[in-house]
């Protein structure tokens, strides 16, 4: 008994007080986060309630959205496209560039192109789609190069149809390895060898594509394009592409995505002015092969005047300084059509090396032909 230690009795402790304000605060924050997940913020300003880095930062830690199950049509389309893209490029002993002219009638700069093509016979092909009247040709390189043409209406799917019609004819020649779409107001900025090497020795296509959250971008999207085309995949870009043969083949193979734009992208539909040629190919390639395109076009156009149509060049505008300025641009710039007018700037890379962006330019008035002919003969780097 003497060796036993007497343990002190336990002290009586009053129950812990739980401050009600902490419980209320934790409950409110939990409810706020749950509501934000179920009903995500619709405006950029709302995103900053949760993070100074905006919506993207907030959604990074949310549970991933389950992958959507593809429709039968999507599965069939993707199988065909994947097979085409996985095929090795067609080997040609005489690889050629296909120059495809989308025009209303005669080409006002045909003699300039004649000068551009001269001496390079066998390294190019020419195709002309004239939508209004049969063109009168003055260059031997254009004679008998007219394809079957249909009427083209600006903003409608007929513009895309004309592009696909040109591709179909150009693809019949197995030596054509790269395909360039040009308008009747387009002119070359360099001599043939430079253009040939630039396009033939790259592994991507130059298709313009960017995300525009504004009224002239996502504002043209229709939910009727679901489930195959979601708004997050909807893209915009200039129609003047330059693409490799494999990409030309998948454009011809596609009917699924094309049909969505044919039915639900047209001026005046549901109060929207959706322009099919500005959205079909940019969206298609963003979904199917986003890493295979440059996301900018090799054809320069000046939208700095912020009008419905780009700036046009008259005879007095065409001089050495104009061409020098265009050929020195080495960044691609897109501006969104929303109230933020965000400038999306990216360097123009050719096989990983920074290079000037543009090989061609538009829009030139026919009256500028003499000045352009003179510059082409005397400008050392054109």
Describe this structure in a few short sentences.
With 382 residues, the chain is α/β, with parallel strands linked by helices.
Q: What would you say this structure looks like, in words?
A:
There is one protein chain. With 382 residues, the chain is of the alpha/beta class. Helix content is 33%, strand content 15%. It has a four-stranded mixed beta sheet with strand order 2-1-3-6. A three-stranded mixed beta sheet has the order 4-15-10. The longest helix is centred in the first third of the chain and has 19 residues, at 20-38. It is globular and about 90 Å long. The N and C termini lie far apart (111 Å). Residues 1-7 and 42-54 have low confidence and may be disordered.
Please tag this protein with its features.
382 residues; alpha/beta; three-stranded mixed beta sheet; 12 helices; 33% helix; globular; disordered N terminus
Q: How many distinct beta strands?
A: 15
Radius of gyration: 29 Å
Number of helices: 12
Per the principal axes of the C-alpha atoms, what is the gross shape?
globular
Distance, first to last CA: 111 Å
Structural class designation: alpha/beta
Proportion of residues in extended strands: 15-25%
Q: Approximately how much helix is present in the residues?
A: 25-40%
């Amino acid at each position: 008994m003497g060796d036993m230690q007497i343990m002190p009795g336990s002290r009586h402790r009053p129950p812990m007080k739980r401050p009600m304000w902490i419980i209320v605060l934790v409950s409110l924050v939990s409810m706020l986060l749950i509501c934000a997940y179920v009903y995500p913020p619709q405006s950029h300003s709302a995103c900053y309630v949760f993070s100074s880095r905006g919506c993207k930062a907030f959604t990074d830690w949310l549970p991933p959205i389950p992958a959507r199950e593809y429709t039968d049509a999507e599965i069939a389309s993707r199988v065909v496209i994947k097979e085409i893209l996985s095929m090795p490029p067609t080997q040609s002993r005489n690889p050629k560039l296909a120059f495809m002219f989308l025009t209303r009638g005669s080409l006002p700069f045909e003699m300039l192109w004649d000068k551009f093509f001269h001496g390079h016979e066998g390294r190019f092909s020419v195709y002309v789609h004239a939508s209004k009247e049969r063109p009168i040709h003055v260059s031997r390189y254009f004679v008998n190069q007219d394809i079957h043409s249909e009427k083209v209406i600006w903003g409608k799917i007929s513009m895309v149809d004309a592009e696909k019609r040109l591709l179909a004819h150009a693809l019949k020649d197995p030596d054509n390895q790269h395909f360039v779409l040009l308008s009747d107001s387009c002119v070359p900025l360099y001599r043939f060898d430079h253009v040939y090497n630039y396009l033939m020795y790259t592994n991507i296509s130059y298709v313009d594509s960017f995300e525009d959250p504004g009224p002239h971008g996502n504002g043209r999207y229709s939910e009727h394009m679901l489930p195959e085309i979601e708004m997050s995949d909807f893209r915009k870009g200039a129609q003047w592409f330059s693409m490799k043969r494999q990409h030309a083949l998948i454009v011809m193979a596609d009917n699924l995505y094309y049909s969505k734009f044919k039915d639900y992208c047209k001026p005046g539909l549901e109060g929207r002015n959706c322009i099919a040629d500005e959205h079909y190919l940019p969206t298609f390639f963003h979904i199917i092969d986003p890493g295979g395109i440059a996301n900018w076009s090799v054809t320069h156009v000046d939208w700095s005047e912020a009008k419905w149509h780009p700036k046009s060049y008259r005879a007095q505008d065409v001089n050495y300084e104009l061409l020098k300025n265009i050929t020195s641009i080495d960044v691609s710039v897109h501006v969104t059509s929303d109230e933020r007018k965000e400038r999306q700037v990216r360097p123009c890379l050719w096989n990983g090396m920074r290079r000037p962006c543009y090989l061609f330019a538009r829009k030139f008035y026919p009256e500028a032909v003499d000045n352009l002919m003179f510059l082409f003969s005397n400008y050392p780097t054109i």
